[in-house]
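Feature request, filed as a ticket because there's no other form

It would be nice if the structure record came with a short human-readable summary line next to the tokens. Right now we just get the raw output. Example of a typical job, pasted below so the devs can see what we mean:
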Amino acid sequence: MFSAKFRHRSVENVRWHVDRMREFGKRDVRFITPTSLSYGADGEEPNLAAVEELLASCKEGIGPDGRVFFGSFPSEIRPEHMSVDALRLVKRYCANDNLIVGAQSGSEEVLDRAKRGHDVESVRRAVRLGIAEGFRINVDMIFGMPGEGPEDVEASMRLAEELAGLGARIHSHVFMPLPGTPWRDAPAGDVDPETIRAVSRLAQQGALYGHWQKQREHASRLAAAAQEYPRPGRSRTLLPQVDPAP
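Raw output as currently delivered:
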């Protein structure tokens, strides 16, 4: 929460909690992480042996009447981590038939500015792999990112429509300047009328869902709070430089 270094609970620690859950009659084990396949990894590449050790222990601990969920909300998968081996690992030990893939944008420039560490093609590849392995794929997309221009929004909508055509569902969000993040001091995200119409069309087709309308309200309140209560010292926020309109 407070540094750029991942800190994961050990398998023994997680298993202790799973055992206590089973004692109290709980049946479902879920994980909270923005990058589930990073568990146990020292670098950027997944350590599938560590992931398997974790999942196998949890499945054993929760027992035959329990369920393990991994890679579904709230433990999404980074698109570049998606592989056939990883997907079959999830299928072997877990109960979920859907996965969340964190795409965030269909614009290469926005992904670069946000330092996402993946490109648009890796999102397409992840969706195709997941569907081919029998999973229902949900793709997180965020509209109103800092510095996002009309061409970036258009690229995101094109990607959303393309992925929906493959069989994925789009989980839509509006950018919120969350405290503790590099973009905490950014303006609230917003969605232009044309994008709202395009998003609504996908929603009517059953290809898109999400609470993006409520998030617009939350984003405005967060931005107002950031202005009213600025962080002491020099801000670490790295906002993209946008040329003023002529």
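Something like this underneath would help us a lot:
The two ends are 41 Å apart (CA to CA).
The beta strands are 28-29, 67-68, 98-104, 136-143, 169-174, 208-209.
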